[in-house]
Each structure stands twice: as structure tokens, then as C-alpha cells.
## 1
Amino acid sequence: MKNTQWRITHASAIGTAHINQGTECQDRFACQTIEKDGEEVLIAVVADGAGSTTDGQIGAEIACQFFIEEVTDFLNSQDAAVSSLNLEFGKFWISFVQQKINEVAEKKEKVIRDFASTLVGAVIGENHSAFFQIGDGGAVFSTSGLLESYQFAIAPEESEYVNVTQFLTDETALENLRFQSIEERIEDLILFSDGIYAVAVDYQTNQPHEPFLMPMIAPLRNGNGNNLNEKLESFLGSPKINEKTDDDKTIILATRK
């Protein structure tokens, strides 16, 4: 699609814990727009490979690749629309991705748990949107871009234990998948991995921390798009952020023109 209605920026930065351990960044992301019946649809996904695994980054890569591919294939089918996406589609997709990861695991003589990853995915149409989430991370949206308008598409889960979450590769993944359909025109979308949770969420209210998120998306909203990916990556890897978190950090920011 030549004249996209979306401005998008995104970046990942390795966490200091991974630098100290000599391991790579295990976050992955993907983002693209497609055309469906004259309507532009934004598909975005962030996946966080489990730090306790050997190949979490590969699981995250597979998850992102096949989220984009399967949503695109679904929407390209004859009578499908963003409003057709539902929890059952998500469960079908998880079963499919688990099968793909298992094939890779067998070739490497490993088990599927070695490829554990979370996932936060969003599909944004003109007036309908669908969100899928398993594990931590966040999907935030606004219908106006105004102060006090940013909200979670899927409310954060309260875990009894710190750093405990669910993964796509779990046997219980189908039950743990969370889904939300929104029938409003979304203007701003922000997806992020667990690495920036400490600065992106107001822990007192359990709501998006607008003093952090709004300045990040402001250059996009204002049309100042020069070198934003590089600037964003530098910011995520800065001492200011690394003081708050030692985890890998990934964010996708998108706003309609």
C-alpha cells in the first residue's frame, strides 16, 4: 500500500542482564499494513523470549513471523474482516505456532519449552480492532491521543509471583490466551515487551503511564519522523532506562496521520 495512513516507529534494545551474561536480545517484533476491501489494516506484534531458556529468541521470532502471516492469510480470505477475528482464531493460531516451534525443536534435539515466548499482538482496522495476548507485556491504545485517553486493550494480569508469566509453548497456552475486540476507531497504538513495564505502567493505578508514553509517541503525532527508529533504540538502551530495568526492551508506536 503506497500511501499508508499510519506513522510507525519501533525499536528493541538488549537488557544489561543479557549483556552481562553474554547472550543476545531475546525480544522480537514485526509490524506491517495490508489492504482489505479498500481499508488499511495495521498488524503489529511483540514477543519476548523467556530469559531462562536457550532458544527463547527463536520462539519469539517464529511467533512474530507467523502472527503476521496467519492474520494476513485470514484477512485475505473471501469473507473475513478484522471484526471476524476472535478467541477461536487465536487458539487455532497458537496450536499452529506450537506445531511450527516443535518442528524446529525436534531438528535441534531440544524440547518446545526451550523456545518459550510471550506474545502481544494487535490488528487495527478502520473501526474494528482485535488484540491477542499471552504472558506479560502490554497493548495500549487511544481513540483520541488526548491526555487521560490511553488505556490497556487487555488489562495486565496480576501474578502472585514476580517474574512469573505464561508462554506460547505452555501446555495451558490455549486457556491462558486473552483476547479483546474493540469497536472504535483507534488513533494511537503502543505495544511493548515486559522490559519497559516498570516505566510504561503506573503501578498505583495499574494503568498506562502517560507521562512516559505520550512524549514517546508525540513526534509521530507531530509528523517529526526523522531517524525515529534510531533515536528510539538509543533511548531504550540509555542509562536512564537501564536504571529502571535490566531486561530486553521493545516498543512499537503507531499513530494515524
## 2
Amino acid sequence: MDEKNLLAEQFEANRNHLRAVAYRMLGSGSEAEDAVQEAWLRLSRADTAEVGNLGGWLTTVVARICLDALRARKTRREEPLGPHVPEPVVSQDNSDHEAAMADSVGAALLVVLDTLAPAERLAFVLHDMFAMPFEDIAPVVGRSVVATRQLASRARRRVQGTAPAAEADIARDRRVVDAFLNAARSGDFAALLEVLDPDIVVRADPVAVRMGSLAEIRGAAAVAEVFRGRAQAARPALVDGAMAVAVFIGSQIRIVLKLTLTNDRIAAIEAIAEPGRLGDFDVEILGA
């Protein structure tokens, strides 16, 4: 058997698994089939001589394809087109198998999964549904192992129906962030001190430093002085499901401020402007 036929045989042996992963990720039978087909095309073009676990390699490829598709879907949905409705799986060549697969997932679960941020959904599906280790998921979502665990944990709470508590936390954090931005924009030094932890630390990546935006700053007074009169182009946002600030230049997000909040005060700010990292974030700009 030549190499291409062997690869085709191995791919077919993994097809049902790959389809199941893609369907849980995308909630669409047709999109799942497209993702699996794209995985075959990538396999046929790749050098897999050094791949020890082809099934794991293919699962990772399908996961990346699905993540890109979810992010593209989320971007398209910025316009008010209404919610995405998961479609049932229908196929003439394997209808019994796919009907069983659809039943095992359930329309209700697919609707809940569709409320998750793309990276959250991927982490939850791969770990909780397919037992993939977080060490293998982390490179797909571009996060550390710890951050990937947090993505799956947030998704799990939402799926299990404990999202209201998380939403209450977000609402509380939103009030702190709004107070911070309002004080910064108006130049109210005293109000800034009210929302900053006395021992706050601000750190910035090299791109943010070169942009002249921020550097390492310590202490509430120093941080308040830096932000006073600024933040005109900043908007409250959810970044990977957590409260943050997105800074626009023109129509593009150029800086993300990831926040650590403690006791209703901002205890740390991480300024991220490196384009590769910004592109990996799931950002939802919050309205007034």
C-alpha cells in the first residue's frame, strides 16, 4: 500500500471522531463536514513522517479549523443578524450514525455552547467531552495551561447553569471599570485613587512600551497620575470572558488592558499591544 493510500485509510479510521469534535464545536453538520474535509486537505499536503499520534494530530488540526470558524462567525455576528441556531446533523450516507451523534449532544446543549466565547468552547469541548489534556489544548488556543483550565472552568459553569453567579461578578467588576474610565477621562485624581488598590502594579509588553502608552508603574498615586486625563479611546470589554479595557486607535483595538480586581479595586493592569497576542483574544466590546 503506498503512502497516500495508507494516510487515507488512517484518516477514514478517524473520520467519525473528527466529525464528532467538529459538530460539538460548530453545532452544524455541514460546517462540521467542511472542517473534516479541510483537515484531510491539510493532511494530504503535510509531512507527517515525524507524527507519532496521527489521531491526536488530526484532532488538533480540526480544532484549529473550528476555532477559526467560530471566530469568523463571531465577527460576522457583530451586525444584528440574530442568534446562531445550531442545525441538526443530516447526511444521506451515514444518517443513523449522525442522528445518534446529534441525540447524544442535544439541541439544548448546543444552544448553551453557542453562548460561549470561541476559546472557551474549544477548551470545554476538547477537555470535558473528549478528555484531551490541557497541555495539548493550550497551544491550540494560544494560552498557558493555567489560562486554558480557566477557560474550560468558565465554560463548565455556564453549561452547568451556574452562570448567574459569574454574571453577577462581571456586573460588579463592570461598575469598577466604569468608575475607573470615568475618573480617568475627567481627570479626577481623587476618584482614580478610590478605584485603585494602593499597591497596584502596571506592566506593559514591549509593543505597548514602544507606543509610549505605558511602562512598569507601581503605586496608586503614580498610576492615577499616568491615567488622569486619558482613556478617551478606551472601552470596557470582556476579554476571554473577564472584565478588561480595550483601547482603540481609529477603528482598531490596539491595546488591551487586562485587569486584576481585588475587593472592588484594580490591583494590577497588564497592557498588551503585541498584534499576535491581540489576535488570539476573544474580545467583546460592552455598550454603555
